[in-house]
Every structure is written in structure tokens, then in C-alpha cells.
Amino acid sequence: MTDATTNTNVQAGAPDQEAGFGDYFALLKPRVMTLVVFTALVGLLAAPVPVHPMIGFAALLFIAVGGGASGALNMWWDADIDKVMRRTKGRPIPAGRVTPDEAKALGLTLSVFAVVMLGLASNLVAAGLLAFTIFFYVVIYTMWLKRWTPQNIVIGGAAGAFPPMIGWAVATGGISVESVLMFCITFLWTPPHFWALALFMKSDYDDAGVPMLTVTHGRRATRFQILAYTVLLAVFTVAIGFTAIGGPVYLAVAVVLNALFLKGAWTIWRRDDAACDADSHAVERRFFKLSLIYLFLHFGAILAEAGIDRLGLSLGGWG
Questions:
Q1: Helix, strand or coil for residue 275?
Q2: Is the separation of the CB atoms in 198 and 212 below 8 Å?
Q3: What is the pLDDT of residues 21-39, one digit of tens each?
Q4: Rounded to an integer, what distance in angstroms lies between the CA atom of residue 15 and that of residue 103?
């Protein structure tokens, strides 16, 4: 191929190399999609109204597709900053395997498909929540907040907190206090989770011009915010143990996890930049990894409580 032909292909938006199925699947952010499906499943099963297994499976599938569509549209819009960040430069678009137009087309198509099919499989409330979630993540967070304010993660975290509400709506056809409580777990968890990541990936956000809190206010302010949100999160998540979706299993898990999380946040707050640089942010990295387990086990405990309740109802029916 001549240089002229190569230049023409680049100008036309042609990929540098042929994309495979894995590249298009990577656009959907499968790791994030896994969290979306899991929390939506918890919302679905924790609801007091049973759902037919086929309807539940279809609903989770379309929720997953909607989450993946959001990821593709996010990668389309953020292709310029993904190219300069170490954590994201290997993604399909900055790596030259998929064009931005292809990602946009995939994201838009899957968004419409997911919302329409979820509405047909379950109800309009669940479909409406999914549509709003996609809009919030792509437009409010990705296109607006992410490059405008250091509070991008705080407000934008709402997008990742909606799946359990959608799952609940699939079962009940509405929104309740319980589904809002599950929303709040992820919403309050998101800032300390991502700010811990930002502490040891600070240069990435600085190079990309993303106004992460570490860039605009510095590490010390970020460490304080991590502690503040962790305290608020601990109070909230432990209190959930005394609500309809809580119980002794959930409460035990919440107390242990929050004790560990508070200890980690306190340790981070007391550190100075010299200590962080000396050990390559080992404490912040451990806190970030703990945050992943933290969220999974809290929702897992809610799921366990729902299973205990269902088992109790089944056994009561035999009495």
C-alpha cells in the first residue's frame, strides 16, 4: 500500500489494522458490564415480587447491552484523552483497531435496541430508567462533567448506581425506598474508589487535562475527601442492615467491611506525599483493590438476605 493510500485511509477514519470480535466487545467495557449485571441481578432478586426466570434473564441481558452501549459511546467521545493516558491507550480506538465512527454507531444502535427490548420484556419504568442511565453516563458525565469539574466522579457516579434500581423496577414496575438505598451504596462508594485510583494514576489525568480532584486540589485534599466519603458510606451502609433489604447476615458483612475500609481511608489520610512516592502508593493500591471487594460483598450480602427470606417463605408454606 502506498503512503498516499495510507494517508487517505487515515483521513477517512479507517482503522490502522483490521478489528476482530474482541475489539468490538472491548468497546462495551466488559468489566464494568459485569458489575452492572451483578447489581441489577441483586435488585431483581431482592424485590418482593417474583419474576419468571426467562423474563429475568432477558431483562438482565438487555440491561447488560445497555451498559455496554454506554461504554462504547464513552470510548467514542473520550478517544482523544484515552490516547494520552497509560491506563486507556491500549483501548480499541486509540490503538487504531476501531474508528470513532464505528464505536459511535455501535453504541447508538445497542442503546436503542436495549431500551426497546427491555420495555417489551418487562415494563416501561425499567426501560425508562435504562434510557436515563445511558443518557446520564454519556451526556451528563462523559460529555459534560468529566472535563468540566473535579466533582465529575461524585455526580457522574450516579450512572453506575442505577442498575439495582432497574432490576428492582423489572420486578415491581416501580421505584421504592429499598431500590433507592441500593442506588446510594454505589453512589457513595464511587468517589473513594476512583479517587484512590487517581492518587496513583495522577499523571494520567494531568496529561489528559481531566480535572480530577488530584489535579485541581492536590493529593492532600483528595485524601481528606476519601476519608469523608468513607465515613458517610460506612454510616449509610451499616444503617441499611436495619431496613427491609438488610438483616443479620448483611449487618455482619457491613460492619467488618466498613471497619477495614475506614482503617484504609484513615491510613491514606495520614500519609504525606513523600511516603506515597517512597512505596509507589502501595496503601492506595490496596485500598482500591479492597473497594472492589467491598462493593461486591455488600450486594452479595443483600442477595443472601433475599435468599434467606425466600427460603423462610418456602419453609413457612410447608408448615
A1: helix
A2: yes
A3: 888 899 999 998 999 999 9
A4: 12
Under CATH, what is the fold of the domain 19-175? Tetracycline Repressor; domain 2 (1.10.357)
User: Which stretches of the chain are assigned E, i.e. beta strand?
Assistant: none
> What are the CA-CA distances from residue 200 to residues 32, 79, 87, 177, 268 (Å)?
20, 22, 11, 36, 12
Instruction: Tell me which DSSP letter residue 116 carries.
Output: H
What the block records as the C-alpha cell of 57 is: 434473564
- Domain boundary assignment for the chain: 19-175, 176-319
pTM: 0.87
Task: Taking the CA atoms of 74, 210, 268 and 161 in sequence, report the sign of the dihedral they define.
Answer: negative
CA dist., res. 143 & res. 298, Å (int): 31
pLDDT tens-place string over residues 114-163: 999 999 999 999 999 999 999 999 999 999 888 888 888 888 888 999 99
Question: Residue 97 — φ and ψ, nearest 5°?
Answer: -95, -25
Take residue 58 and report the three cell numbers written for it: 432477558
